[in-house]
Structure formats: C-alpha cells, structure tokens
C-alpha cells in the first residue's frame, strides 16, 4: 500500500509502504538500481520480503521451516543474502527465480543466533552471531568457517570499507573488531566510552567506521591509521534528547550518517561537517526502526514495530 509522500526538513521527503501484518520487518536492503526492488527480512513469518516501490506491491519468499531471518544485504552478484537465525544458516535468494540456497553452519556449533553479514573485497561473506561467533562463507567453494569471537558473546553489526576491510560490533562486549582476511583473526578495538554497547557499524567513503552505541546513546567514529586498520582515533557525538538509544547506523553516498533512535522513536541524519543532527520522528508509536540501508538518493528504514518500510529521499548533491 502506497502512502502520500510528504516534505520534511526542506530537501528530504518521506514515503511509507505497508507490508504484511505481523512480518516484523527487521532489516532492509535496496537493489542498487533506481527502479529495483527493496528486500526486507520478514522475521516473524520466516520469509524474505520483496517490495516494488513503484507500485507498493510486495510478496514473500518462504526461506524454509523454522526460518527467522535477521539481516539482509544485496551481494555483488545482485542477489539478496540473509543471515537466518532460525535456520542457523546463510541464505541466498535468486532475485529472478526466487530459488533459495542455504549454507548451514556446522551442527557441532549449535545455535549461534546469527545476526548480520557483509561481503569483503574478495567476494567472501562474513557474518556475526550473538552467541559469540563470527565466520565466513566462500560462495565459490561452499566452505563455511566459524570462529570463536574474542571476548565471547555479542557480535552484532558488520560492515566493509571501500578498500575491503571488515569490521564488526559487539553489543554485549562493548567493542568493535577488525577481521584480518588472510588469517581470519579478529582484533578487538576498544572505544573510549566504557560499556557503550556498540551495536552496528558502517563505513563512510573514506573508510572511517561509524558506530551506533546502544547503551551510551552516542554515535561514534573510528578513524583507522594508514598503516594499521586495527589502530586509530575515536570521536563521539551524543544523540539529542533525554534518553537516546542508538540502534543502527548507515552512511549514504554523500557521507551523511543515518542513525535510528529507539528513545526518540525517530530516524536521525547527522552531518559530520557541521556536527548537526536532523530528526525525522515516526508518525506511529513504537516504530522500532532497525537496520537501515539505501541506494543513491534514498535511505530505507524498516519499522519493525509497525510493519512498514519508510524511504527518505534526498538530493545527492550532484
């Protein structure tokens, strides 16, 4: 169902799309093509959702018995890839035929509570599991490797820089980590704020790592040193409001930073140059916007509490 677009904060317009009731749309990923579909994880219904933004029509692709999908990204092959905590597997869905392919984690690992995934610069899939693991899938060979995370429980958001470096955040561990793609080893990087609850990470065009801090209500930035991706400098900004809860972070192609704030029931856009936050509150209570993603000129937000997808359209500056 399409909703009327409305002008917000000058150059940003919003549009809401209603999807399946009870889907609890968790994460979202837009096809890079301007007219391409938008994928979302229908966590409560064990399916991957596919929205056509032109018409507002959506459909669900069942992922298998017991499925509970969490994260989704569009891979370099143009297909949506999913972390499915119910199946304890990485899942690929063919964007045309909707064929579902799974890479189960080794049974001896047990339940890992899979969270999020990303592609490195070599075409390999890295993923996190909150029960204290991270790992890799080689799409060519089918090999699945699972590793124990340093400091145990907590691996959550994960992202790749333009140069192909991979970083993840540990919510329970209150740190971020850099993964060496040659050895597979993860090096812990401690933020300056203790117990901050680093939840999600994203990279800007310069390879700086932006972190949403759930416990502290801060947006922080780690700037890696030129010769060591696991060392560098930190800076942090407190989100506006009395009790901010920064859930997810996404950096658009203009290097503006989008943060979802459960405390304010809003999506925020941060300008690193001015240090200014803009707030876009939801028109419904308990929107609970989880991981945002986007494409040129668009930032997409899944309202897991309202079963809607919201798009923020903005000028790219070109």
Can you describe this structure?
This protein is mainly β. Helix content is 0%, strand content 51%. The chain is built from no helices and 29 strands. Strands 1-2-29-28-27 form a 5-stranded antiparallel sheet, with no helix packed on it. It has a 4-stranded antiparallel sheet with strand order 3-4-5-6, with no helix packed on it. It is globular, with a radius of gyration of 18 Å. The N terminus is likely disordered.
Summarize the model shown.
The protein is an all-beta fold and 318 residues long. The protein has no helices and 29 strands.
> What kind of sheet is the major sheet?
5 strands, antiparallel
**What is the number of E strands?**
29
User: What is the strand arrangement across the widest sheet?
Assistant: 1-2-29-28-27
Helix share bin? under 10%
User: Segments where pLDDT lies below 50 for 5+ residues?
Assistant: 1-9
Judged by helices, strands and strand pairing, the structural class is mainly beta
Strand and helix order:
EEEEEEEEEEEEEEEEEEEEEEEEEEEEE
Average of the residue pLDDT scores: 95
GO biological process, one term: response to antibiotic
Keywords: Antibiotic resistance, Lyase, Magnesium, Metal-binding
Pfam families: Vgb_lyase (PF24684)
Family: Belongs to the Vgb family.
């Amino acid at each position: 169902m399409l909703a009327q677009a409305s002008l917000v904060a000058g150059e940003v317009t919003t549009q809401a799309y209603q999807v399946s009731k009870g889907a609890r749309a968790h994460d979202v990923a837009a096809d890079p093509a301007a007219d391409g579909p938008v994928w979302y994880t229908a966590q409560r219904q064990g399916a991957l959702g596919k929205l056509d933004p032109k018409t507002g029509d959506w459909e669900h692709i069942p992922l298998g018995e017991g499925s509970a999908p969490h994260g989704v990204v569009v891979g370099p092959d143009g297909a949506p890839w999913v972390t499915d905590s119910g199946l304890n597997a990485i899942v690929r869905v063919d964007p045309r035929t909707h064929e579902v392919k799974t890479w189960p984690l080794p049974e001896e690992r047990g339940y890992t509570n899979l969270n999020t995934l990303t592609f490195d610069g070599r075409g390999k899939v890295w993923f996190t599991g909150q029960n204290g693991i991270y790992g890799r899938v080689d799409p060519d060979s089918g090999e699945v490797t699972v590793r124990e995370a340093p400091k145990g429980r907590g691996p959550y958001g994960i992202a790749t820089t333009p140069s192909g470096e991979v970083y993840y955040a540990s919510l329970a561990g209150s740190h971020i980590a850099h993964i060496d793609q040659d050895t597979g080893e993860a090096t812990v990087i401690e933020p300056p704020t203790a117990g901050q609850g680093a939840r999600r990470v994203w990279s800007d065009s310069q390879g700086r790592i932006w972190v949403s801090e759930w416990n502290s209500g801060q947006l922080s930035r780690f700037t890696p040193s030129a010769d060591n991706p696991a060392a560098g400098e930190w800076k942090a900004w407190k989100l506006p409001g009395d009790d901010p809860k920064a859930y997810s972070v996404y950096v658009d192609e203009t290097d503006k930073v989008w943060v979802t704030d459960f405390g304010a029931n809003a999506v925020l856009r941060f300008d690193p140059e001015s240090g200014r936050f803009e707030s876009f509150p939801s028109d419904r209570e308990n929107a609970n916007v989880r991981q945002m993603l986007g494409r040129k000129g668009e930032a997409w937000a899944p309202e897991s509490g309202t079963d809607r997808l919201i798009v923020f359209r903005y000028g790219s500056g070109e």
